[in-house]
Design brief:
This protein has 4 helices and 9 strands. The protein is of the alpha/beta class. Strands 1-3-2-6-7-8-9 form a 7-stranded mixed sheet, sandwiched between helices. A two-stranded antiparallel ribbon has the order 4-5. A hairpin with a 2-residue loop joins strand 4 and strand 5. The longest helix has 18 residues. The model has no long low-confidence stretch (mean pLDDT 94).
């Protein structure tokens, strides 16, 4: 039994009806702390329509919303809890990925920690990663994180505001070191966005997805 077995079956919202999804590249949306699967789904209308978009609800109830893993007051976390959450999402992706030519991950805040962890556990499985106002976890040499296999070829978009009041400087510093070594990075800084997403950023994400995923298949 894995950690993921202790969680309920995933709740997933799709941007397109079932008959319109097969054969389309997939984007998996991973929301932030205390949100739910509806939170990012509105982005689907602003992303390239060639994609099928699925938004997954985190498995742990947290106030009116949900979280992928518990946080302490200092925004700290247990690596085992992160791994349990990614196993939960990976099991679901494995169940549907045969219907799609590629899978791209898009995570906001804690969802970026999820997206980068999924990539680090399965380096060959994902076409690209988009991280918005988030961070990558410090895995401390955990062998399930296969960073050595990430040689800088997987495209990743990282957008953030330097004035983001939520993501702590130590997490930004670790993430900066990690992305420079392991992914093909597109990094954009925004002002006045704080801990959020703005229209300009989603425009950049759309351009990135077109170039990094759609055009690379032609």
């Amino acid at each position: 039994m894995t950690h993921a077995d202790a969680f309920p079956a995933p709740v997933v919202e799709w941007s397109k009806p079932e008959q319109e999804r097969a054969g389309k590249p997939l984007i998996v949306l991973l929301h932030g702390y205390g949100a739910n699967e509806q939170d990012l789904l509105s982005l689907a209308d602003m992303l390239p329509q060639e994609f099928a978009v699925a938004s997954v609800r985190a498995p742990i109830a947290m106030g009116p919303g949900f979280t992928w893993f518990p946080l302490t007051a200092s925004i700290d976390y247990s690596l085992d809890a992160v791994k349990a959450a990614t196993a939960y999402v990976q099991d679901w992706i494995d169940s549907i990925k045969a219907d799609h030519p590629s899978v791209t991950l898009l995570g906001f805040s804690m969802g970026m920690a999820m997206a980068t962890t999924l990539l680090r556990q399965r380096p060959a499985d994902f076409a690209a990663v988009v991280g918005l106002s988030g961070f990558a976890v410090d895995a401390g040499g955990d062998p399930s994180f296969r960073d050595a296999e990430l040689d800088g070829t997987v495209p990743m978009f990282w957008g953030r505001d330097q004035q983001d009041p939520v993501i702590t400087p130590d997490k930004i510093e670790f993430t900066m070191g990690w992305v420079r070594k392991h992914v093909k990075l597109t990094k954009v800084l925004y002002t006045g966005m704080w801990h959020g997403i703005n229209q300009q950023e989603i425009g950049h994400v759309s351009e990135f997805l077109t170039h990094a995923v759609l055009n690379s298949r032609k």
